[in-house]
Description:
Elements: H1 3-14, H2 16-35, H3 47-59, H4 66-95, H5 106-119, H6 123-126, H7 133-143, H8 148-176, H9 184-211
Helix pairs in contact: 2-3, 2-4, 3-4, 3-8, 3-9, 4-7, 4-8, 5-7
Protein name: DedA family protein
Keywords: Cell membrane, Membrane, Transmembrane, Transmembrane helix
Domain VTT: 44-171
Amino acid sequence: MDFSGIAEFFKFLLDSEDIINYGGLALIVLIVYMENGMFFAFFLPGDYLLFLAGLFASTGQLHFSITLISSSIVAAAILGSYTGYFFGRLLGKNLEHRKDSLFFKKEYLERSRVFFARYGGKALILARFMPIVRTFSPIVAGTIHMNIRTFSLYNVLGALAWGVSLPVAGYYLGQRFPQIIDYVEYIILFFIGITSIALIRTLIGMKKKRNKPPGNETSQ
């Protein structure tokens, strides 16, 4: 087996610049679809891929309008989450007995379940901006048989918030500050740092709340 070829393939999938330059909008849409509901695709780039798609559109490296890019991303995110939802509804219980592997960790499923238990349907909107949780939240929604109409509402709202804000922000900054294209590596590190901090803080908060004695909770 050619492990070097496999390693190069995964390196390509994790490099947003290569995805945009060589795969174009089609590959961006495919990755967004997979990362928004397929448990084995949690490692794919999300937030910074969308931002860079908008940025590269502003500089002409991605030859599509920002309207088409954003609408395509929103559609892919909605369909991806529906895929995760119906997978969770039909086969989600099987994940409970699945062994940990390179493409699946029970910890990720549990993390999303706790997040979902705290925020309910709103988790589907908040999770869009959190790696890993974004992938597993629709699966959890399907596993607990969340009402399809309620899921659809939050699915669409979350996809719009995520799929429009990040590409448009990248496009706007690219037009205002064209030189920003020279700092792609720093942009990626910035997004990784911000999303990681947000995820860690949320998990710590959920853990504290879960471990808090019932008698110590104040009434709302």
